[in-house]
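User: Please go through the entry that follows and flag anything odd:
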Amino acid sequence: MSKIIDRYIFKEIAVPFIIILFVLTFVLLMGKILQIMDLIVNKGVSVISVIKVILFLMPAFMIFTIPIALLISILIGVGRLSSDNEITALKTSGISLLRMYYPVAIASLITFVFSIIISYFIVPQSNVATKRLLFNIVQQNANIGIKEKVFNDNFKGFLIYADKIPDNKKYMEGIVISDKRIIGEQNTILARKAFLVSDLQSMTVKLTLEDGSIHTVSSDLKNYRKIDFQIYDINLDLSGALSDYDESAKSTQDMTMRELLDKMKKPNLKENRMRELAIEAHKRFSTPLACIFFGIIGLPLGMRSHRSVKSKGFAIGLVVVSIYYVLRTGGEAFAETGYMPVAIGVWGPNLLYAVFGVLLFYVTNKEISLLQKINVYFWNGKRKN
């Protein structure tokens, strides 16, 4: 009998969890939809490449959407059972709140394990894969974007004109470049031939010019300088071609846990860099662990709002989650600036929610009405006075 009840409660949580997880992840992807459409329409990127970008972005989004979806699904599922008086029937049958928590605990544990696998293993790999894929897209965009007898401004600080591009597109002829990288100094570069050379390891694209000259005119138009060259390399800034591309070194989000720990062991590491690495290392565990605490809070909170409709359960869940992430963001900011130890800044919100969840669970299990207790306390106080 108990197994049937466990499966029944678990199903009430699992179905809305899947729906909410899909909806929340899709909402986060909507923030990127304009850039994704720009890749397809204006940049000539294939649909398959765009689908790969979306798939690589999914794990980073799911780290946040999984705990949120779990809490809201518990509130909706348990709220539905309470509104139909099924929770009351279970209590009348002698099933305690702690026993009802078993399927919720299993759901919380499954989402915790799933989240920690994503956070620990998948997210760093998907971030690196995303950067490499974006680099390939940028490289392809650079080759496609430069057309003969057309001024191309996809590259920050440069205006490039190619008089002729052969069908194989491996090189360009008759190159004219307006170089605006140096403020107050206008450079015009002429070259007979140019090649686009990419380096996947360093994720850079450079334009190699052959047999040309650099013409420089001062801002007051009084001085002129000419430099001839046989080979001249220009590193292209591709932020204009793809704004999300970042060609910097590996960030903390891109590092595996081993890389984070190895980086923290390096001598003469700056304090702010050490705090940044430590915060990321703690977050790999603290964020998935929020699933456990949300499970503890969700069951009694869902039972207390038993007359709520699904929309209200969704709203309550968003409020609880918003408060949690506000505390998390504030704690990380204080930890990053050194005003608070890293462990307290990252784990503080989890600790607060754990204490709140246990107290709420105890009060609900004992069927204690806090509002009634407060009214009785003040009423007795007035009578004594």
